[in-house]
Amino acid sequence: MNAVLEIHILQNFAPSNLNRDDTGSPKDAFFGGVRRARISSQSFKRAMRTYFREQQLLKPDELAVRTKRVVDALTERLEEMGRDLSEANARVVAALGGMGLKADEDKSQYLLFLGEREIARIAQLIHERWDELNVAEAEGGKKGKDAKKAAKAAIPADLSKQLRGLLDGGKAVDLALFGRMLADLPERNADAAAQVAHALGTSRAEREFDFYTAVDDLKPEDTAGADMLGTVEFVSATYYRYANVDLEQLTKNLQGDTDLALRGLEAFLRASIFAAPSGKQNTFAAHNLPSFVAFTVRRNASPRSLANAFETPVQPLGRQGLIEGSVQALVKEWQQLDGKFGQGGQTAYLATVSVPEGIPGAQEAPNVDALVEAALREARAALGV
Asked: Are residues 206 and 337 in the same domain?
């Protein structure tokens, strides 16, 4: 990467179950020979995308949606253009089939990650070439690849090409950050500009069980006992979180729009601080902000996670808790890697705990706004804008 912005966060979550596996247990992983608490990167990315939209950090048409219900989204737009609902639905299915994306009258075959502008342009093209999409059922009982080929051949070749050409990412920031894979249209895939690691506990994980009972409010007073019981697993840990953004790839994915790239980067930085998975929050309300956040911009450098700072699990020591111990381990790893491998950069950090001196090229920011502005200033310099 010619210019990479990296995020290092230490965040302590009180007892919670923010991200659970198929059995309902908090996710975990072995690291350094012991089991650690873990929160998946997918859950954090989902929380960030939701935060972009809820906090209006970006305009609606600068975002994407991941859905199997694109048929409904397109049909509704055509209905707003004055088209008959049932006829619109049939033409949407025909158009998606012509693009090579199998769909029935309700849903696409799999989740599609599409920019709002892409959806709008597809609807407009269907509206403009309405009569050419009035095709009969093309699949004729065919299945698999044969059915997809038949659906693709059912509409004019130039229209099929034009529809596929609309899938250029639509300058959607979340799509540009997190990338897209379309199994049937690999030429329309987008390489992710951001990499997000799974959040990993810095100490040994101790999962616990909450035994609960619920009482029927309307049961007779002379009836004893609970009417429902069960258990919920939870865990508490200090997590190390790491992510990086290839600044040039982000700009490329946004079709060279550096202003949008920088606004998207700002949204990503703010969401990295404030967004978190919401699993079981009605039960645990573990709304804990990070204790340490560092943004680093490095040029002509390889990405560098500091997760190995915690290969030896952090232990509470006297009055020093896991957060302080984790900060000390992180700074020590940072110094060692910088001294041995070079490729240093400019760092701004924010902390609510004492941070040892010695983070190379680092300056402490007094608040989030100053921290984000410092990172954006370095990003602008790295991009030459």
From this structure: yes
| pLDDT at residue 106, as a whole number | 86
Per-residue pLDDT, 1 = 62
The number of domains in the chain is: 2
Q: Name the pTM for this structure.
A: 0.94
Torsion of CA 69, 72, 76, 81, to 10 degrees: 100
* Residue 227 within a domain: no
Q: Are residues 49 and 78 in the same domain?
A: no
Q: In this structure, is residue 282 part of a structural domain?
A: yes
Q: How far apart are CA 71 and CA 119, in angstroms?
A: 10
Contact 75, 88 (CB under 8 A): yes
| HEC letters along the chain | CCEEEEEEEEEEEEEECCCECCCCCECEEEECCEEEEEECHHHHHHHHHHHHHHCCCCCHHHCEEEECCHHHHHHHHHHHCCCCHHHHHHHHHHHHHHHCCCECCCCECCCEEEEHHHHHHHHHHHHHCCHHHCCCCCCCCCCHHHHHHHHHHCCCHHHHHHHHHCCCCCCCHHHHHHCECCCCCHHHCECCCEEECCEEECCCCCCEEEEEEECCCCCCCCCCCCCEEEEEEEEEEEEEEEEEEEHHHHHHHCCCCHHHHHHHHHHHHHHHHHCCCCCCHHHHCCCCCCCEEEEEEEECCCCCCCHHHHCCCCCCECCECHHHHHHHHHHHHHHHHHHHHCCCCEEEEEECCCCCCCCCCEEECCCHHHHHHHHHHHHHHHHCC
Written as six digits, the tokens of 21 are 């596996």
Report if residue 228 sits inside a domain: no
User: How many residues belong to the chain?
Assistant: 385
Residues of the chain with pLDDT under 70: 1, 136-143
Q: What domain range includes position 363?
A: 4-59+191-217+233-383
Is residue 13 included in any domain, yes or no?
A: yes
- Predicted confidence at residue 2, as pLDDT, reads 84
The answer to whether 116 touches 64, Cβ cutoff 8 Å, is yes
